[in-house]
Amino acid sequence: MSTDRIIFSRPFRAARELPNVEAVLSSDHSHGDGPFTAAATAKLREVTGAPYALLTTSCTHALEMSGLLLELGPDDEVIVPSFAFTSSATAMALRGATVVFADIDLSTGNLDPESVAQLITPRTKAIMVIHYGGVAADMEGLQRLADANGIAIIEDNAHGLGGRWRGRPLGTIGTIGALSFHDTKNIHCGEGGAVLLTDEILMARAEIIREKGTDRARFLRGAVDKYSWQDIGSSYLPSELNAAVLDAQLSEFDTIQENRHRVWNTYAAALPEWARRNDVRLMTVPADRDHTAHLYYLRVPDEHRRDDLITHLAQRGIVAPFHYVPLDSSPAGLKLGRTPVPCTRSAEFSGTVVRLPLWPGLTAEQLARVVDGVTSFTV
Ligand SMILES: *Cc1c(COP(=O)(O)O)cnc(C)c1O
Question: pTM for the full model?
Answer without folding.
Answer: 0.97
